[in-house]
Structure formats: structure tokens, C-alpha cells
Amino acid sequence: MKGICFVQAISLMMCAMAGFAQQPKMVVTVEKFENEANAPTEFFNSLRTRITDNIVNTRKFEVVERQRLASVLSERKLVDAGMTEENETTPQAGKLKAAGFILYGSVLSLGVDKTQSDVVGLSAAKGTAKVEIQLRFANAESGKIISSKTVIATKSQSRMEGDGQQVSGNVGEQVVQDAIREAAKKVTEALVDLAYPTKILKLNPSDMLVNLTKEQTEIGAVYEVFSAGEEIKDPDTGASLGASEELVGKVEVARTSPKFSFVVPVSPAEIGAFKVGMLVRRQDEEAAKQEKIKARKEAVKTFESRF
Question: Is the pTM of this model over 0.90?
Fold first, then answer.
């Protein structure tokens, strides 16, 4: 097989591998993120690495680092100038194409707030980490910003010690890494929703197939399903602003696989309310948490009303 995987990664039309044609993947260049939060270098680098890894693991994109792209272009120029010889690993002329999307942004918050209280013989520590990113998605060919989105992830962790016994581990560092993982997941979800919106692929008698891989989701995750409505246009420019959406119901992931997942309706929604092609988006974690609290309170109120 001639050429290298990297050449395939930066070409919008991928060459066949081992003689078998493959569907072309959209290419994404992960650009520089500004550390406006002045976060520690290890946390900042960890965030960017996790974002890149998560995008790769969707299996929907070919991810190219801008620095690596510049290196490949330089190598091609040396060959064209006759300063080095071409070989199997040399990027092929005419094969270097711009990425479909450029992803960049600013990290506005990345750190942890710690609180500690001491009582006789007992010490309790709590860390609450927050990651806030202002994302930008741009078209690589035109440089035009396609979408802007703010991603926020928070995680909390507590630890107790007593009678001189200490628990190993740094609660601050652990909770920051948890928040980083959650933020990277949300960034990836935003990219996938922009490039390849999750949709219902097939309806079965009791469940549905959606284009979510096992790396993108997990059993028990709840998603909201929307139907596309009337197209909305800007009254001044006439440009399309997208279509209005109507919430149809919620579904929960029952099984996952490398290429798709099975979801089931969440009561009171029924399978008959859904249709192939409807949009599927993960429910906001904070909203889901508030719904559970509300449902729990209503259950308690209903129970107490019996007496």
C-alpha cells in the first residue's frame, strides 16, 4: 500500500486500503487553545490531549494536528525542490487538502475550589472542579466561523479522614481530571452534532438504532429526540438559519456496539412517537439531575398524601 496513513488523514478523499474502498471521513484540524484561565500546564495539556483522543475515538473523523501538517508540507517542498528523494512515506503531490473543520477556542476556566472542615477526630475535604471552554468551529477552506459554543463541565469529590488515618490520593487533582474528561466529551459531542448529527437509523418493535458508537455513549445515558420543523430564514439576508425543532420524547441507551447503539423510549414516550431520521441529542446532565430531584420530591409527596 503506497502512501502513509497521515496522507490519508489530510485528504478529504481517502485512498483505498488493502484494495478495499473506504467511505471518506471528514477531516478535523485541532488548532491552538488559549489558556486564558492561566491553568497549570499539566491540566491544560491534558484537556487538549483528551479532546483530540475523543475525536479520534468517534471513528467519524481523520484528525490532523496543525503542527504535523506544516511538517508534511515542508517535506513535500523539499522533494519538489530536488533536495531530498521521494520514497513511500513522502506525501504525494496534489493529495494535501485542507481540513473540513478547524477546531479552536479559549479555556476560560480550569481549576478546582477546595473546602475543608475539621471536627474533633474528623476532617472532611471537598473539591469542586470547573472547566469552561469557548469553542469555535471554522470552515478550513474559507476560514469562516461556522459555529460558536460554550462548554461547561463541573465535577465534585469529597474525602474524609479520621483518627489520624489518611486517605491516599489528591482530591483536587482527581476531580480536575474528572472535569477534564467530561469537558472533552462535550467538545466532541458538539463537533459530532455539527458534522454528523445523531439520528434514529431504524425502528424495531421495542427499540431503535441510533448512530452512536460505544466510545461516544454508555448504557443508561439519556437522550432527547427532536423532529425537524419549518425552515427559518433571516428576514434581512434571506439566509437559512436552520429549522425549528420540537421535542418528541426521551430515549435511554440499552446496548452499545462499535458502530451503533440500541435505545429504548423513556416513559411516557412510546415507540410509535418516533420516526427514522429524527435528531438525537444527549440530555444536559444538570437538567437530568434536576428532573430526578423533582421526581423524587413528587414521589415522596404522593406517598405522604396517603397518610
Answer: no
